């Protein structure tokens, strides 16, 4: 059978037994017999497919596979970290990109990587990085201080990079001598060594950056892997181990990313051993993981599923926001929309970063009382943007919120907005809110707050939410400057102000459920972004 016909047969046989929206089907009501039979038929079809390669490449050192295949849900649109927006983009970039400090497993965040040491001056306004000797990029060319300066000059000179809250205080980057780079800040930044571990802080060859965007079709850096091929149209990225990586050599020598937008198809390919890892599966598919396939959860400590609100209209009224906070049923959202995998969230900061975070119990009567004297006293209509193609969590959560708000007389009209037009649509205004899945790259109070909590941060400015909360802004500014030991107390104050202002409504934690055929020691994720491979 030709390979194209084989895949067509597989598509016919692997009919989705449970739709990704979680609604029961006639097939599901008839039980699992048909599903099991279908899987057996599919296995026979796969076995007869000429040229259809299983993910059973020969084991390498210690039983670790030499090749790992990943099925992901959203297009990898770019390998330029200043242009990327999806989790898939970030995961590939963290495999190929080299930074001065480590992202690692979280507990070594900000520790030296390409730099052999990074030090802060006594006045906290200058950071100095000294490069490890004899470093080379994945193409074998030497890494110099000039490459580091060029990489950060690009961030500062690029409109997208210069607006990132991590770099608003970075005034200049220079090289006082061979192998040494100096960063000059306008004010102290407690987590600057961690900022140097982000994808946006990747070190590239200065000569490559002079090529402009053409360079990022197949970029060169100094991460664990290098790019062999990148077909952004077909959604197929192939990486191989970087032969010049300065750390421990990778036992997994090859990683393949394949775009599979449909969640049920990702799981079917995983069950059939066509891939080793299926990323971000809806929770209603968990019962279908069986045999060699097991569930892997990755929770974003600095992430959540919130309802963002636009202050330009009705949501500018504090009592309306407080009423919505009391009307949403977080337990229902967690249970009905997310199968209990993502727990209710009541405040901004992760619970381990602040103390005494109050649990908000749904109270429809009090929510209605708060609406007295507001534009929604006798009922009102609001417009929420609905992203159907970003993360699967968004539509079911939005639907439950819509149902909840109807109980207090707020009619929610949903405006379907593809992710490709979302940014432009928010510029146009005429909307009151949307559910999104923000996540911080780094789990530090100051960096989480800078993006999501600060009214001047990237979420509020990028999505034109018109949030006015000057006290929150001042506290975030204090957080960014304060040494780590002082941050918990400031975060506590910011949490209290957040509860009064409610610029957005936290709903649940953000967790990605993935399926894997490999044990956690051979493939896992840190903070949802960073793929750990031996």
TrEMBL record:
<dbReference type="Pfam" id="PF00496">
    <property type="entry name" value="SBP_bac_5"/>
</dbReference>
<dbReference type="GO" id="GO:0015833">
    <property type="term" value="P:peptide transport"/>
</dbReference>
<feature type="domain" description="Solute-binding protein family 5">
    <location>
        <begin position="111"/>
        <end position="436"/>
    </location>
</feature>
<dbReference type="GO" id="GO:0042597">
    <property type="term" value="C:periplasmic space"/>
</dbReference>
<dbReference type="GO" id="GO:1904680">
    <property type="term" value="F:peptide transmembrane transporter activity"/>
</dbReference>
<dbReference type="GO" id="GO:0043190">
    <property type="term" value="C:ATP-binding cassette (ABC) transporter complex"/>
</dbReference>
<dbReference type="InterPro" id="IPR039424">
    <property type="entry name" value="SBP_5"/>
</dbReference>
<dbReference type="InterPro" id="IPR000914">
    <property type="entry name" value="SBP_5_dom"/>
</dbReference>
<dbReference type="InterPro" id="IPR030678">
    <property type="entry name" value="Peptide/Ni-bd"/>
</dbReference>
<protein>
    <recommendedName>
        <fullName>Solute-binding protein family 5 domain-containing protein</fullName>
    </recommendedName>
</protein>
